[in-house]
Amino acid sequence: MPVIIPLIDPLIDPLIDTAVTDIPEASMADTAATGTGASDPNDYVASPCTRVCRIDGRTGLCAGCQRTLEEITLWGGMTADQRRAVLACLPGRRRDKRRLIRWRRGEGP
């Protein structure tokens, strides 16, 4: 009988609760399913990935780029406008993360 090996990393999967996205445009899942990602080479939007790929169990965000697992997974199938919407959310997420770290250290807001 063949052995089935799960493809999900057991060190990351338990940390994932739900992926929440702030993108008000068309559903990213629908975009990925239809394969209607950015097709105009002049409208290319680069990934914010920093190669520090760890999902924070408390926030559900990547420690490096601050995207959700859903945003990371669907990035390749997103339109340029959807990618820009994700990028627009990242500064606020970084700011919130810094505030939380200062609060935990007792440094105040």
Description:
- By secondary structure, the protein is mainly α.
- It is built from 3 helices and no strands.
- The chain is elongated.
- It starts with about 25 loop residues before the first helix and ends in a 5-residue tail after the last helix.
Please outline what is shown here.
With 109 residues, the chain is mostly helical. The protein has helices at 28-34, 69-74, 80-104. It has three helices and no strands.
Give the topology, please.
Layout: H1 28-34, H2 69-74, H3 80-104
- Overall body shape: elongated
Main pleated-sheet profile: none
First and last CA, distance: 58 Å
Unreliable spans are 5-34
Radius of gyration: 16 Å
- Looking at how many chains there are and whether they match, the oligomeric state comes to single chain
Give the helix/strand class: mainly alpha
Mean pLDDT figure: 75
Helix content: 25-40%
Count of runs of 4 or more consecutive helical residues: 3
**Count of distinct strands:** 0
Strand share of the residues?
Answer: under 5%
Secondary-structure element order, N to C: HHH
